[in-house]
Amino acid sequence: MSVLAPLLAAAGLVIGASPAQADASDLCAQVGYNAGWRGEALELAVAVALAESSCNPSASNTTGNSPASTDRGLWQINNYWHAEVDDACAYDAQCNANEAFRISNQGKNWQPWSTYVMGHHRRHMDVARAAVARLGRPGPGPAPLVYPQESGRVVSARSADGRLEVFAAGADGVHHAWQTQVNGGWSEWERLGGPGNGQLAIASNADGRLEAFAINGDIAQHRYQLSPSGAWSDWEEFGTGGSSVAAGVNADGRIEVFASGPKGVFHRYQDAPNGGWSTWEPTGGGPEGSRVKMEKAVDGRLEVFALNGSTFQHLYQTAVNGGWSQWEDFGGGGHDVTVDHNADGRLEVFASGPVGVFHRYQTSPTSWSGWEPTHGPANSRLTSDRSPDGRVEVFAVNGDAAMHIWQKGVNASYADWDTFGTGGTEISATANADGRIEVFGMSQAGVHHRWQTGFSTWSEWAWLNSTSGPPTK
């Protein structure tokens, strides 16, 4: 008898007269269904497990893990980044599924799984669909959420193959570098032209092609990958000038772009996934000349936050893929803002000003805390991202110092600010394919980066390759 049969039976799957013919994917489908995935979300979960472990509950891997650690069980839950999951659970099929359901935010966030980031799950989708069909209980399910990337003078996002690409705005236009392998080293910088001393944003098309946006006081332009992880187009006209730009992806895959200027905030959006663009449309107000950032609510609605020296306002979609609310007051003005999401989907907002950094967070999907002081560098540039275990980390830089704070636990309160380097002009954080945060800092010396080597350990600041990239004023 197949050794798979008792595992399937223990999971509650009716095997029938020929248990030796059962497929390993049936186990993943059953325990995935029991954990809570449904429909297309269940199919995707099974495909990820097939890519990770071939749906073998005893599978383990230590190759290429940094820090040294072990990926365990069906969804290869790492014992370093998820020490809360012990071995007894990790190698138990149902317990592993339950924890993967939790870590993936019910199937809405598969970014911690490198096989998903690099698209390796796609080759298993037909087998996964067949397993879910045999289960006979597909039901509806959530699609993974695509969260916006940080915008500013330096931006970074992962190509479809998992390699990070970074763009930095200098006086002579936009400069570009990329990882030469997933989680690895970097190319030399190349100069692309485009708007000088611009503000940048980046987002992923529905087919996986990255699209970059650049704006300065005179012009807005964009360029895009011609194929997933491939070469880039030339710069193309995208509108007149402005102060700041941010981009996010609707639940249906259409990119939406917001830009601020002297008459408030305007937006453009794709008419269809991977398609053409609307004209610029007013949003009914918004702070003039503001810093604009975007995030995504737990149900998939985009949210926009805009701040200038006197005003902070907030705008959000009233339905998934739908229209927009009126601008709402979100507090006093400030210098910069960053927005991120907890592991449970609740949004976290940090804003800097002349007396430090303040913090608001959702207490429910529709309600917010008041502003709370965190201290931190005054009038700093801000960025944030999440560690592989889902804890939010926030980074701040001004002319004197770089500092960071982090959640002491998942969905928890924050530690005190800690030194992260000397001063600079801009900072941006993103995540590698293996989940480790990578931070880019700009200054008059150029662009440097630091990256996580563990939960609380970091590399030193270094150039990406042999040159420093564009300096800033």
Describe the 3D structure.
This protein is mainly beta. 14% of the residues lie in helices and 35% in strands. It contains 7 helices and 32 strands. Strands 20, 21, 22, 23 and 24 form a 5-stranded antiparallel β-sheet that branches. A 4-stranded antiparallel β-sheet has the order 4-5-6-7, with no helix packed on it. It has a 4-stranded antiparallel β-sheet with strand order 8-9-10-11, with no helix packed on it. A hairpin with a 5-residue loop joins β12 (244-249) and β13 (255-261). α2 (24-35) crosses α3 (39-53). The radius of gyration is 22 Å and the shape is globular. The protein starts with a helix and ends in a 10-residue tail after the last strand. The model is unreliable at 1-21 (pLDDT under 50). InterPro entries: Lysozyme-like_dom_sf, PLL-like_beta-prop, SLT_3. Residues 1-22 form the signal peptide. Residues 151-466 form the PLL-like beta propeller domain. It comes from Streptomyces syringium.
* Uncertain residue segments: 1-21
Give me the oligomer status.
single chain
Through-space gap between termini: 71 Å
Mean pLDDT: 91
Tell me briefly what this model is.
The protein is mainly beta. The chain has helices spanning 4-10, 24-35, 39-53, 87-90, 93-103, 114-117, 125-135, and strands spanning 60-61, 71-72, 77-78, 154-158, 164-170, 173-178, 190-193, 199-204, 210-215, 219-224, 236-240, 244-249, 255-261, 264-269, 281-282, 291-296, 302-307, 311-316, 328-332, 336-341, 347-353, 356-364, 367-368, 372-375, 381-386, 392-397, 401-406, 418-422, 426-431, 437-443, 446-451, 462-463.
